[in-house]
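Following up on my earlier message about 6-sulfanyluridine-5'-phosphate. Here are the inputs again, as you asked, copied directly from the submission form:
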Amino acid sequence: VSFSQKTYAARGQEHEHPLAKQLFANMERKKSNLSVAADVATKAELLLLADKVGPYICVLKTHIDIVEDFDMDLVAQLQALAEKHDFLIFEDRKFADIGNTVKLQYGGGIYRIADWAHFTNCHVIPGEGIIQGLAEVGMPKGRGLLLLAEMSSKGMLATGAYTDKNVEMAVKNEFVVGFIGSRRFTEDRDLITMTPGIGLHASGDALGQQYRTPETIVTKNGSDIIIVGRGIYGPGKDVAAEAQRYRDAGWAAYEKRLAK
Ligand code: S5P
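Thanks, got it. Here's what our run produced:
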């Protein structure tokens, strides 16, 4: 039986990676496969958004380098909100350099990502050394890595043999817990797919983003987590109400998949 036919709870119990276990348990507890992409420019906006969507999400996805007044107090406050609302943190850093360089970028610098982000991600364009470099920093801290096996944007180049290589590398590297992509990629190991480019109404934006529904992505394609940004906090939106709506839509799509 395919992993996408199993419950998140069962997959959590069977999983060998403690972080994946923690994530699946969280999803089951909160009845949520929703991650919010918090692409906002200030500390105050990020904290307010995290506090509002917190009850409805399993994962908060950050782009920490967007925040113009970043400091370590932001991290402390985000961690407090993660505790308060019971969610995990994913820094969407998209590393793409040689192993030695990403080690420095992941563990150090201003952001010290490995100290606070449960998940981060990378492109495998430099080859497998990028995974090894990130693993040297992240594994001892119990972190997990997602590979960008596909992207959501128009004309993206992560297709075919490149996507297949991502899957191959993911299966054999224990630091990898999943993918960014649009579907379930393999049955060789229980790797979690998180999918951005989710919208209940818009079909895209002016810069190449393309949106699909939770039903297509979760029910039909077997992806595990939906990542939603502007669909939740775009102009004039009631953030908590939208988060609840996307949470319910994502969970309904998952229940429909189990019933297939
Ligand atoms: O292929 C991708 C991969 C990612 S991680 N396409 C994406 O859009 N993303 C991220 O998902 C992107 O960086 C942004 O943070 C979020 C989508 O935001 P939205 O406002 O379009 O929902």
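One observation from looking it over: The mean pLDDT is 98. Hope that helps, and feel free to reply on this thread.
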